Input
Amino acid sequence: MGGDFGPSVTVPACIKALQQHPDLFLVLVGSQTQIEPLLKGMSASTRERLSIVHTEVAIDEESPPGSVLRKYKDSSMYLAVSLVKDGLVAACVSAGGTGALLLTGRHLLKTISGIGKPAIIASIPVLDSEQRCYLLDVGADLTCDASQLYQYAVMGSVLDSVTHVRENPRIALLNVGHEEHKGTDQIRQAAQILENTEGLNYVGFIESNEVFIGKADVIVCDGFSGNVLIKSSAGLVRVIESLFHDSVQRNLFYRILGLLAAPLLRPLRERIDPSQFNGASVVGLQGIIVKSHGNANTTAFGHAIEEALNELSNNLPELIRQKIIAMKTINVSGAAVSHDIL
Amino acid sequence: MGGDFGPSVTVPACIKALQQHPDLFLVLVGSQTQIEPLLKGMSASTRERLSIVHTEVAIDEESPPGSVLRKYKDSSMYLAVSLVKDGLVAACVSAGGTGALLLTGRHLLKTISGIGKPAIIASIPVLDSEQRCYLLDVGADLTCDASQLYQYAVMGSVLDSVTHVRENPRIALLNVGHEEHKGTDQIRQAAQILENTEGLNYVGFIESNEVFIGKADVIVCDGFSGNVLIKSSAGLVRVIESLFHDSVQRNLFYRILGLLAAPLLRPLRERIDPSQFNGASVVGLQGIIVKSHGNANTTAFGHAIEEALNELSNNLPELIRQKIIAMKTINVSGAAVSHDIL
Output
């Protein structure tokens, strides 16, 4: 029910996912009367793998996140996350509000042992590669201490290594410069911890102008900075497209040129298309939750489902749990790092 | 002497500025032996308006900023800011290190009464307008309290109103959402102060994807976020140019198309060209300092000189001083705002 378009986007994306994955079962949580009409024309064999948990209650986007746990226990989002908690489904995908989803997720699923708070991780395009890199946090927690940044590094590293099949993902901390005196206390402390942790491939600070050129596979920052980074980039891409569109409209010669140049711009668009940015995961919980943009179209919501499948097939929460344990035992040997900072 | 290219960029930019502004006098502070050869071919009348304060000492970019005040009192940067302090010149433009320039500026010029710390203000392009908007802080202070954000709003508003001749510049706070419960304590507190301040046109929160579409004239944030925003945008523009360039190289047809499409992309490039981003001012000091990017080319360094002229002709520090005083007296009437927060 979530997002700007509700079932009109999410349901068609679900049907497509069922068609693409013959072993996938989906439970749609929401208004049966809104969902049913959108299922017409499905083959019987596909329809068998889709069920509906009916509720008419959807969370009002204007409500403060805190109200979710008090007022919305019969909402589609709360029920969907409950299904994960009760082991009735293996993952949850939602285009609902981020704050509500985080609160519900933490409340029902709890964080993995050793993880203080969940983070939202986004994948962003890299110029010189077909692959992408991971950026976290992009909005779960606006201010982070050093141990959170360290945990983000571990979680991002685990997700990157399974998604992009990289053995030692390069981890960098987002900062305003490369020199070791740069950055906030939290960032410099996190750098110290990461430098003294074996089993993580920490490569140092990265500046924001370097994130798109593949200088790192996992980029770690607080939720405010990460949010600024992905949203300003998506906004800039839209502005550039709009400026290009305006140029093309100026006269007939430019219009023809625009048509001819379209294939030139296609690879560029594919690489930086915001709908491909979609499917930010909530990581750090004892269960899989993927957050779709509210304004996702069917393709973009489909990406969010794919992301859930990716994490599911790799059992991401368990991998994170194991990695955090492995890290802890090694980390204390770092002479410059006090243990209680973790 | 500062920046990646030193006098080879700064001196030609200075010569051009002298030619364009017949009433401009420039004092170049740096190595006479490096500067002199670059002045050949200047007309005698232009050469008369240029003088050199010789020093062979330039600040090592690797030095921590704190060392500047101890070790570099005879450096080109320190001497240049001293000239402002002593009233021998009216403004200083430098492509040297940001940290060093801020420290030197604060140490020698002091902040304007009512301003706690200086900020760095950058101008960024806006899609639907020939004008730009101002973003501050972009790196002077990585974490800011509410009163700093308030002061940034005042300073940005003053600079925008004189540069872009706008009577009531729209001021927005950068945040991760529009709802009033969003953001850090500092941001929500700053919003409260700004809402209760007469004489400032505060329009609310702005998200990062909206900064390029002209939703506000002055965008206020902490130095870390601002730095992330401008650097990631500049980085993304460079990536897009590079992807386009690669597309064009794929075969002869695309190469011809690329040549034909060049005029299509020109307005776009002009609008988002990073060299046009240049000339971030250090605002809040009792004197004018403009910071050029270290990697600025001659055109970009020229923009930084223009920015200094703009601030000088408007006597920006004095305008800020007056505005801060005017604000203070009105602001305390805001019932929801405690006075000591300012």
